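Translate structure to sequence.
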């Protein structure tokens, strides 16, 4: 069935995408230290040439770390682009590398929090913020047991098909973001861990304004809703790139206590605080390229203009 789907994309207008995918596949065979060096250089090229995205990163870092000097903020921004460059080049490892290689390249920290919840047969939600190692973290965990996550189709149809196949090649079930919550709730109630990404600005729908680094941010209230409906324990989970291409670390943090509380603003604030704590550990690897503060409370000006 998948091959039949791909046969629809052999025309000339899809050739640039095929070339890009072929390049990604070739790069995925390289040693990770070499990918890290090349990705860092590529990221700095993006930093120099892409003024619009550079501005987004600088605005986000300035808003979240106003106490830092402009030099320190710029340092985080440059390091972010270097790490992002590696992400663009090493994503092929997540999509095509063997299970053995993926396991060899990843290590765990705080694994006892996850293992204890599994031993107790708890329903589990992994709170997985948008750090640059997010892709390989979810795929690595899906080599062990069935997982479920939410995804959004890219505009490019061929890329969407390849991405869906790559992400689900082990035991990761993908549910489109437009589907009702019942699909996620059903799987989580079955004991399938939910790898949930809650921290992007998608407008006012299903969101409240909660502080993120002291700045009001439109924040999804879906996490506390699913946790309440499933009785799941919420465990923060962050995947980071290790320096010099030494691999990736999947870190689990202590489960959130007394969560949810029933107060949407309090619960989303608590969630954002957990993300903030992780960002402070590795600020250059949070996804600053996203307009996290795009939706503003009425009367506030756009930060990014």
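Result:
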């Amino acid at each position: 069935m998948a091959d039949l789907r791909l046969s629809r994309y052999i025309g000339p207008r899809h050739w640039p995408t095929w070339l890009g995918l072929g390049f990604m596949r070739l790069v995925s065979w390289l040693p990770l230290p070499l990918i890290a060096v090349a990705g860092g250089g590529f990221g700095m090229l993006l930093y120099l040439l892409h003024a619009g995205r550079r501005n987004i990163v600088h605005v986000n870092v300035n808003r979240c770390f106003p106490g830092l000097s402009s030099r320190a903020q710029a340092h985080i921004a440059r390091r972010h682009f270097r790490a992002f460059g590696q992400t663009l080049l090493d994503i092929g490892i997540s999509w095509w590398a063997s299970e053995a290689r993926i396991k060899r390249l990843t290590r765990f920290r705080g694994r006892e929090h996850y293992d204890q919840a599994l031993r107790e047969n708890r329903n589990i939600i992994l709170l997985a913020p948008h750090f640059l190692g997010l892709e390989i973290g979810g795929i690595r965990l899906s080599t062990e047991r069935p997982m479920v996550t939410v995804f959004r189709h890219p505009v490019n149809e061929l890329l969407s098909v390849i991405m869906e196949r790559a992400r689900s090649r082990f035991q990761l079930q993908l549910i489109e973001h437009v589907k009702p919550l019942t699909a996620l709730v059903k799987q989580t109630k079955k004991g399938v861990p939910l790898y949930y990404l809650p921290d992007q600005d998608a407008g006012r729908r299903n969101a409240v304004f909660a502080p993120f680094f002291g700045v009001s941010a439109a924040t999804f209230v879906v996490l506390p809703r699913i946790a309440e409906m499933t009785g799941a324990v919420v465990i923060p989970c962050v995947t980071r790139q290790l320096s010099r291409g030494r691999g990736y670390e999947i870190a689990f943090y202590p489960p959130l206590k007394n969560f949810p509380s029933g107060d949407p603003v309090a619960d989303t604030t608590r969630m954002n605080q957990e993300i903030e704590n992780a960002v402070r550990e590795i600020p250059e690897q949070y996804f600053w390229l996203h307009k996290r503060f795009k939706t503003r409370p009425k009367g506030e000006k756009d930060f990014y203009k």
